[in-house]
């Protein structure tokens, strides 16, 4: 009887957690972090990292034919945590006394992801300025088709993104696809040119900000 009562209390507690918190999200976040820290190789800051995922029944929309649009953005949280841990980007920012928040996101959907489909999310840094780091994510199906592409502007607080990237590039080995090149025998670090889509996106965000300031 005692065991039965204990089990009932545990079930009630679990149900309450599910009611008041998205428990599945927190559990998966812990799992993603543990896998990145314990089972995956460390990555260079300019590396492209990959996580695997699957569209489950709690990811689909009311049409029951494809993944809900909002779930794409939710999946990016797990991709970023994996990237932050494996590259030590978040650790470096914290060591400098800074923080990082999501400044803005843009996503383009190309083809829906069907229920129970397995897909990958790739993550890489494509540009940075003094305040922000721009990260590109791609949702890639088993047929290598890019189902969606997202760009996230990660805003750094209390530290400079330029300084953080300089530290990251100097502390990690030279990488074939990095911004490091030899010039007259010296190692010179080049920042990549701003991609056109980010240039136009920033212009759009600035117009939006200007309109909001008028209100």
UniProtKB/TrEMBL annotation:
The UniProt record lists the keyword Transmembrane: yes
Gene3D superfamilies: Hotdog Thioesterase (3.10.129.10)
Record field: transmembrane: 6-27
InterPro entries from the UniProt entry: HotDog_dom_sf, THEM6_lcsJ_thioesterase
SUPFAM superfamilies on file: Thioesterase/thiol ester dehydrase-isomerase (SSF54637)
Record keywords: Membrane, Transmembrane, Transmembrane helix
Family: Belongs to the THEM6 family.
The protein's name: Protein THEM6
Protein species of origin: Chironomus riparius
